[in-house]
Amino acid sequence: MNDLFDKMKKDAGPLGLHLKRAHGYFAFPKLEGELGNRMIFRGKEKIVWSLNNYLGMVNHPIARKIDGESAQKYGLGNPMGSRMMSGNTALHEELERVLADFVSREDAMVLNFGYQGVMSCIDALVSRHDVIVYDAQAHACLVDGVRLHIGYSYTYKHNDITDCEKQLKRATAMAQKTGGGILVITEGVYGMSGTQGKLREIVALKNKYDFRLLIDDAHGFGSMGPNGAGTDEAQDCQEDVDLYFSTFVKSMGSIGAFIAGPQDVINYLRYNVRSQIYAKSLPIAVVDGMLTRMEMLKNLPELREKLWHIVNRLQNGLREKGFDIGATNSPVTPIYMKGGLPEATNMVMDIRENYNIFCSVVVYPVIPKGEIIFRIIPTAAHTDEDVDLTLKAFEETKKKLDNGDYKADEIPDMSEAGYLHKTVA
């Protein structure tokens, strides 16, 4: 028998493969200063494209003011206990009414956190007799929710409606045997590629199959649709999406989440979602801040207009310069390139150190070897100058990548110890 910790001493898993050389720079970097389009990284100001702050609310004066006032008024410990036992308030219920109305549903339930919230919702929605059908590129929180399910589940190829129907046929046959129902899960906007889930095509399958649809619209709430009510509003299919989930993190600059749908289903979830029943209620200061943010979302359309101005300027500029940004039809902007891990890390360093641009990069083992994805998140806080400087940086560094200037045998040591040693030397 082995000691449980033995494997952890050998390595930190696939994502921690280069921990000793990458920690603090490529992984777990520390951005400092005021949250926004310009922040400090290792002592130098950078243009930051890594914050899911779509509407710029995280540091908006109105949001900052209510956050400060609410924290002073209520503190961060109020209320104590779970919603079911002692942590319910009139403000929690008011926020749920506001959210339900905004996304055109009968009722809504506020959740403490997005990741654990949607996991627990999936767990509560399905029994061992029910069957789940979900997109192959579903977010980790959805996949983990499916893992909690002790019944059958089927995966369909990403945004492939033909394969989705194939899996629905399989699910229907299985549900007829078990006596259960079917839950289909997709995302509104996929956070890596920026493509929208094919919601209209999926709901059209309801004409042939009996299922309920849950969408995770973390990247769509606030940013998509004529009113910012989400990707299902943008695709004009709100009535056919049975359950709508989103977080308060991406567009609202806060914390927490919600799920909305038919009142009887939401009431069922209130009494059966374990991560809420057995956890402390969302602090009332956060709830109060979210009520103000919802007013901002409804009454300040210029925030969404500014976001899309930056999105279109950036994405059009990248396409004009010949960059491959895939089929994104949302603010999420991936830039696809070819190269190995050392090339990717050297390019990141050049962009950060010499062009003062900070954005996220995705490489193997998250994506196949030889692929590089730079992931840029435009926000209402960015400026035209930010876009121009970023386009120039990528144009110049792409030429270096194509010329082989970033080739190396191994990734550089950019851990804090290695970086400080080089700086001192």
From TrEMBL:
Residue span(s) of domain Aminotransferase class I/classII large: 45-393
Top-rank taxon, per record: Bacteria
Record's signal peptide: none
SUPFAM superfamilies, alphabetized: PLP-dependent transferases (SSF53383)
Transmembrane regions: none
Gene Ontology terms for molecular function: pyridoxal phosphate binding; transaminase activity
Gene3D superfamilies: Aspartate Aminotransferase, domain 1, Type I PLP-dependent aspartate aminotransferase-like (Major domain)
Keywords attached to this entry: Aminotransferase, Transferase
Keyword Transferase part of the UniProt annotation: yes
Cofactor(s) the protein needs: pyridoxal 5'-phosphate
The protein's name in its UniProt record: Aminotransferase class I/II-fold pyridoxal phosphate-dependent enzyme
Organism whose genome encodes this protein: Hanamia caeni
